[in-house]
Amino acid sequence: MFLSVFDMFKVGIGPSSSHTMGPMVAAARFLELLRSSPFEFTGLRGSLHGSLAFTGVGHATDRATILGLAGFVPDTYNHEKAEIALANIAETQSVSPEGLPTLTFDPKTDLTFDFDNTLPGHANGMILMATDAQGDVILRQVYYSIGGGFVLTEEELAKGKATEEGAPVPFPFKSAVEMLQMAKDSGKSIAQMKRDNEIARGCADGFAKGSARLWQVMNDCIERGLTTDGILPGGLHVRRRAKGIYDALQAERGMNLNAPHTINDWMSVYAMAVNEENAAGGQVVTAPTNGAAGVLPAVIRYYLDHVPGASETKIEDFLLTAAAIGGLVKFNASISGAEAGCQAEVGSASAMAAAGLCAVLGGSPEQVENAAEIALEHHLGMTCDPVAGLVQVPCIERNGLGAIKAVSAASLALRGDGKHFVPLDAVIETMRQTGLDMHEKYKETSLGGLAVNVPNC
């Protein structure tokens, strides 16, 4: 099983990897399908299903799909150009993607929210269609946004997890047990094995540059969040808090006013800064999703700013280790809130961050696995119940607490020798089963939990 660091960590836009980035990616893939087709198309249509319908407005799913059909992609997204494009599409009721003729598309009528028909493959389903001059559908494709910006067609989803393309990798671990055994046999760390896998798949050239860019985007996101105040969009009138907390923490430095637990405020404020940026539609890195994008950067920033002897040279190992853990969770369970609740998002992020921190603090592979297990175990059962379908309440604070749990988990693991009662594989499987048992109203539909018990005004 191989999942690249650059698959797990993708530069994109807020507020959601599955509901914003995924639909935009799906639309881009549909355009590629049109470009390779022999048919002559004159128009486009689409429909959003399941969680993409129920929370699509709050997650800007319709906006992302429209922009995707106009040729925008998350990695190079430009907000100003997007606003101009949206206005033009609304006025002309058409899109003009590169390499294709102008296609009729009225956002008001040609993109629908289907609340009644959930597609069978995944909670996040969408259908994109192309029509001929008579308005008849001559090409149709079903896409599933399966979390973290990953998108599969219904055919790809049907093939299952066993299908994998590409060169073989030297350490093809599909479970934590296999990962630890390979580490023991090879004498390598988890990061070293993961790096070797990346090299086998042709990622050697530019890997350092690519991983450095990931951290740069993460840290830039933190900095924007720490220096920006105001009200977040969406109608809940949620006030940005990161800047005020950060300013207060800065002012208190050196005044001997801080209790030891104030370090938790630093971890929280880094994470909240990211998720306030995400909620505002800013540039973030999936880690492993947008909704959980603040946990891992916050733990890296905590490591760099507050741990004696920390070094930026270890960030690459942090990301490699975290990606290895995230790959296990994605392969054996889910990183999608619409599929398994927030345990799959913030829970996975906390496990990844705990593993990364444990590794750069000198932890053995067994201690790293233990750190990930502790963090994920104590997020089991967490629901995804965003108020008004917005990635704001409880998501922003939840990332802060996920970061705190990650640091605590890494610290506990380092206090031991790696031997522990509950294996990481068992926790991942428990998370998968819990997600299956969880009622749909608690899985990113905004039909239960805080979403119905907190006034939306």
**Sheet/helix structural class:** alpha+beta
Low-confidence stretches: none
Principal-axes geometry comes out as globular
Q: Mean pLDDT score, rounded?
A: 95
Please give the order of strands in the largest beta sheet.
5-2-6-7-8
Radius of gyration: 22 Å
DSSP summary: helix tally: 20
The CATH topology label of the largest domain is: 2-methylcitrate dehydratase PrpD
β-strand percent reads: 5-15%
Task: Write a structural description.
The chain folds into 2 domains: 17-159, D-3-phosphoglycerate dehydrogenase, domain 3 (60s Ribosomal Protein L30, Chain: A), CATH 3.30.1330.90; 176-453, 2-methylcitrate dehydratase PrpD, CATH 1.10.4100. With 457 residues, it is of the alpha+beta class. The N and C termini lie far apart (46 Å). The protein has helices spanning 5-8, 17-35, 51-54, 61-69, 79-92, 107-110, 154-159, 176-186, 190-200, 207-227, 242-252, 263-279, 295-306, 315-332, 337-340, 346-360, 365-377, 395-415, 424-437, 450-453, and strands spanning 11-13, 43-50, 94-95, 103-104, 111-114, 124-131, 137-147, 150-153, 283-285. Strand 7 and strand 8 form a beta hairpin.
Keywords:
457 residues, alpha+beta, 60s Ribosomal Protein L30, Chain: A, 2-methylcitrate dehydratase PrpD, five-stranded mixed beta sheet, two-stranded antiparallel ribbon, 20 helices, 9 strands, 51% helix, globular
